[in-house]
């Protein structure tokens, strides 16, 4: 349960994406009171970015009568390191090298600031406000453009000795002839089970077969995971097979994850998770068929309870209560 006080009943959350940086004010019940955003790519110098970001945050605070009422600030960012409060060599952000962002924000705002990577922020948000409330052992899997993860054991996020532990999207699940992943390695889970991975599966299956499909009406290079979902909902067999293939791969990976930490639940978040039974059914079946007997039936497969529109800010904001 989040604890607060009368003087400082709010926190702020910041989600830094490659396109936009979204920030908002959140209360102890997980209600996002107000949000705003700036363009991340607009600012080539980190000093200019921090100035724009903190100016926007101060304006939002003033407009919502929250001056002097912010307990802490949490940031979710690509390649964010919780131990150091730095963003380190994030490929999709305009600033290179090691950026001490938490300190820069804290100095400008006069409020403590903590930072972690975006998937870990989602896990903290789920534990604070969502489906993992009350759980001490669970794994958060974010299925978006990539596959992110946050591993919680005994109520604590697993960071490792350097702050970057828990990269389950880059566990190798296909060693022979594995797909090239954006990380430079081959056969990573992300190369198959992300939104881009689903689109890639669609192109491969359509190329290797002559089976009729609604997806053949779309230029192969333009197919997205949403197209595959829409076709599957319309009863298209090829599209259903793509989700079956994706769910089976996720289930195989989850069997290993369960053996690592014996989580109470695996929580799925992100666009692909909204495929519902198209994805959840093959995942669950594959887990049931392959998990070690001592773990059978012990790990729930859950959908995130965080609203997509608020999830990133909520997840980041949850860090603010811990400072």
Description:
- This protein is 37% helix and 21% strand.
- It is an alpha/beta fold and 323 residues long.
- The chain has a 5-stranded mixed sheet with strand order 3-2-1-4-8. Strands 11-10-9-12-13 form a 5-stranded mixed sheet, sandwiched between helices.
- The chain has helices at residues 46-63, 101-109, 118-129, 190-193, 195-208, 225-233, 237-261, 277-290, 308-322, and strands at residues 10-16, 20-27, 32-39, 70-77, 80-81, 86-88, 98-99, 113-117, 138-143, 147-153, 156-157, 265-269, 300-303.
- The protein has 2 domains: 10-128 and 309-322, Nucleotidyltransferase, domain 5; 134-304, ATPase, nucleotide binding domain (Nucleotidyltransferase, domain 5).
**Rounded radius of gyration (Å):** 20 Å
CATH class of the largest domain: Alpha Beta
> What is the name of the CATH topology of the largest domain?
Nucleotidyltransferase, domain 5
Characterize the overall form: globular
Write a concise synopsis of the structure shown.
The chain has helices spanning 46-63, 101-109, 118-129, 190-193, 195-208, 225-233, 237-261, 277-290, 308-322, and strands at 10-16, 20-27, 32-39, 70-77, 80-81, 86-88, 98-99, 113-117, 138-143, 147-153, 156-157, 265-269, 300-303.
Features:
single chain; 323 residues; alpha/beta; Nucleotidyltransferase, domain 5; 2 domains; five-stranded mixed sheet; 37% helix
């Amino acid at each position: 349960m989040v604890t607060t006080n009368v003087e400082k009943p709010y926190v702020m959350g910041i989600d830094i994406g490659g396109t936009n940086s979204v920030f908002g004010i959140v209360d102890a019940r997980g209600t996002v009171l107000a949000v705003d955003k700036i363009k991340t790519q607009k600012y080539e110098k980190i000093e200019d970015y921090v100035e724009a970001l903190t100016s926007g945050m101060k304006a939002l605070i003033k407009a919502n009568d929250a001056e002097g009422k912010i307990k802490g600030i949490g940031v979710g960012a690509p390649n964010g390191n919780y131990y150091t409060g730095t963003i380190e060599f994030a490929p999709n952000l305009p600033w290179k090298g090691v950026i001490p962002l938490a300190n820069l924000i804290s100095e400008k705002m006069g409020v403590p600031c903590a930072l972690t990577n975006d998937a870990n922020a989602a896990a903290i948000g789920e534990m604070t406000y969502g489906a993992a409330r009350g759980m001490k052992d669970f794994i958060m899997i974010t299925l978006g453009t990539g596959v992110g993860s946050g591993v919680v054991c005994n109520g604590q996020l697993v960071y490792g000795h350097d702050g970057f532990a828990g990269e389950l999207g880059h566990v190798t699940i296909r060693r022979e002839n594995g797909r090239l992943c954006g990380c430079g390695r081959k056969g990573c889970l992300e190369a198959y089970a992300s939104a881009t991975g689903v689109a890639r599966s669609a192109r491969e299956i359509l190329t290797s077969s002559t089976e009729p499909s609604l997806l053949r009406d779309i230029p192969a290079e333009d197919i997205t995971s949403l197209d595959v979902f829409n076709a599957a909902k319309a009863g298209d067999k090829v599209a259903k097979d793509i989700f079956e293939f994706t769910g089976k791969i996720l289930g195989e990976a989850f069997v290993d994850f369960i053996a690592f930490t014996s989580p109470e639940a695996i929580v799925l978040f992100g666009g692909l998770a909204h495929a519902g039974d198209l994805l959840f059914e093959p995942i669950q079946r594959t887990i049931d068929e392959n998990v070690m007997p001592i773990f059978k039936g012990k790990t729930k497969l859950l959908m995130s309870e965080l609203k997509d529109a608020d999830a990133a800010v909520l997840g980041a904001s949850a860090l603010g209560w811990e400072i």
